[in-house]
Amino acid sequence: MNILAIESSCDDTAAAVVRDGRTVLSSCVSSQIEMHTVYGGVVPEIASRKHVEAISGLAEKALEDAGLSKNELDAVAVTYAPGLIGAVLVGVNFAKGVAMALGLPLIPVHHVRGHIAANYISHPDLEPPFVCLCVSGGTTAIVDVRSYTEMSVLGGTRDDAAGECFDKVARVLGIGYPGGGPMDRLAQGGDDGRYPLPVAHVSGAELDMSFSGLKTASLNLIHNSQQKGEALDLPAFAASFGKAVSDSLVPRTMAAAKRTGYGKIAVAGGVAANSRIRADLQAACAQSGDRLFLPELRWCGDNAAMIGCQGFYEFQAGHTAGWDLNAYATRDIALG
Ligand code: KG4
Description:
The protein is of the alpha/beta class. It is 44% helix and 18% strand. The strands form 2 sheets. A 5-stranded mixed sheet has the order 3-2-1-4-5, with helices on both faces. The longest helix has 27 residues, at 234-260. It is globular, with a radius of gyration of 20 Å. The site of 5'-O-[(R)-(carboxyoxy)(hydroxy)phosphoryl]adenosine has 19 residues, from helix 5 and helix 6. 5'-O-[(R)-(carboxyoxy)(hydroxy)phosphoryl]adenosine is lined by residues 10, 136-138, 163, 166-167, 178-181, 184, 269-271, 273-274, 301-302.
């Protein structure tokens, strides 16, 4: 089954063709980062307009790269939630148009379910059930993946997402946008014990997290050193920050894995590219005996291949949509 997949939930326009859920025939991503960098964050209206400009050409390119004609497509899958509402709407309307014109089924895909499915591309032997740590610019959640289409959140952030925290701190340091990658690189070789930063615990909710205190503490540290005219040891600060994020995420993921007893842990989303988090999870799984599945770096960030992959399983479960499909800024992953 050949699925044309469309993704436009934030600042990447993407189209891909995926065969039978696991084989990526093509994957095209057009990043808008340059456009948003001058503002230090994504400007929703600009994102929507740029998606409109790029989406049609990208879909044509995805077909061309896959070596397929329109007639060889069997369905169209699209991210319909969560995301910037105007941005998601562009993808949903485009996918509706293509599906309607070609007489194909339309498959709505939850963006975070897509991130989880990126692991199926990197690991052909991975099958549910497993626990997945989902960490991106908008999401931080530990998900119980009971089957390809049945999942629920075991724990997650009460406030900021981990990726957002990376981005805000990097912006104040002036090291680039989005900030996760630059912070990760800066942290290499830094002393992670130099700046002790807070790791919050949510009382009564063992698997929940909070990153707003870490963000505030980090920004205060940066501003205080600037006001006092003291140079911050940047690699040490970035390493200390990365450690604090990882110390929030990794023990809770391990606790969730223990609770479910699946023996399999996966990671998903842009922040899953973080070298500290990957290394800490590897060390923790070596201790616990859980099998760890890390997506290849190219499938961590937003892409449409992951949407085509999850779309295949949604289709198999009978989850198709009518022409009245709507886009949602937020949506529980359990609802699909
Ligand atoms: O999954 P993604 O591309 O978009 C969303 O769905 O949000 O994730 C983007 C996030 C950004 O916050 C970015 O700073 C972060 O992923 N990120 C990283 C790394 N690479 C990207 N965070 C930490 N370390 C990285 N190496």
